[in-house]
What does this fold into?
Amino acid sequence: RGLIFRELRNVMPVVPAIFLQGILFGLFHMNMLQFMYASVLGVILGFAAYWSGSLWVCAIAHAAFNSINIALEHVSERFLDRYEFVIVIASVVGALASIDALYLFRRKAGGRRALPEQDG
It folds into this structure.
């Protein structure tokens, strides 16, 4: 996603580039349910990467999301068909908690990048 985002930034403003790379991230999963939540997660992680200036934020949050998803799948395998949406929500919450923790770390370190008002 970082490479795609960087290339998109050459031809469009930040916010559309973040949304487009998120949608492409969702499409890469080639499954409708995964497309929906991966696109949302891709957009969130895109903003996190741009805002923090680091792909590590995305890598750690993505790893947390996948780890939580795998753990919940094994714990609730017999409930997966009924509660798949709950598992996805729990995974998103875990990823967002990771982003929040990294935000606090970055803030304590003194760095932050704001979105530009006008970018072209």
